[in-house]
Amino acid sequence: MRAGGTSETKAPNDEVQQLLLTVKDQVEEKLGRTLAEFKLLSYKTQVVAGRNYFAKIDIGDGEVIHLRVYEDLQRRVTLHSVQVEKSLHDDISYF
User: Fold this and answer.
1) In whole angstroms, what is the distance from residue 75 CA to residue 50 CA?
2) Does residue 93 register a pLDDT over 90?
3) Is the dihedral of CA 82, 94, 43, 17 positive or negative?
4) In a 3-state reduction of DSSP, which class is residue 52?
């Protein structure tokens, strides 16, 4: 990983899945609907004054979204943005 860049794509794990679940309500609010599924498929990280997570999420019915989530140095987690209409094959990139 180059300075300021994102990491390589990482496989899902329980720790990151749980971290992302903390912003599920915010994602549902942005999308304007309740999500029956919210499964981490893969992710990248970026070290800043804290950490950015760029995640590919399966939200059910064949729909995939990308999230950008920020965790600050005090471990507070906030949703930064959501990209919709993604596919399983779309690479996770900085946004």
Assistant:
1) 8
2) no
3) negative
4) strand
